[in-house]
Amino acid sequence: FKRSLGNQNPSPKLIAKLKGLMEKVERGVMAFKEKQREVYESLMLQELALDKEIEAFGKRSDGWEAEAERDRRLWDKVMSEPNAVDDEAPPGGGVPSSGYGKAVGGSGGGGGAGAGGAGDDGSGLLPEVVAYERFLKRHGGVEGGWDPHAHYTFMK
Q1: Is the pTM of this model over 0.70?
Q2: Which pLDDT belongs to residue 96?
């Protein structure tokens, strides 16, 4: 830039030209700054939204972990103590009439791979299967105590 000016004396025309050039550069810089500020604000809003989503997912994940731990402890209790879960139905309706509860009592045959007195209840089932069936019966069967139609509708 200095070479293009050379040894010229600053004339009013040259000064006006330089002033116009400097104003144009300044407007360009200001426009660039404004655009970058808008981009930055947009990114900040996205970051806040993502932080909230991550926090919500973390809480949901913690809930899943707590539920899994509770289920694991219950299952360990059922498996370690044969009488930890009794055979009475849960309050408020019992096992729904889906047909599953009828097979729990051991009617419907024997002679399968589990036959031969494997369970304590004389059904010929493995103790784990018996404990699981007691757990199901205690907690409302395969439909959780719901009416079969309502359960099917909910699961759809």
Answers
A1: no
A2: 42
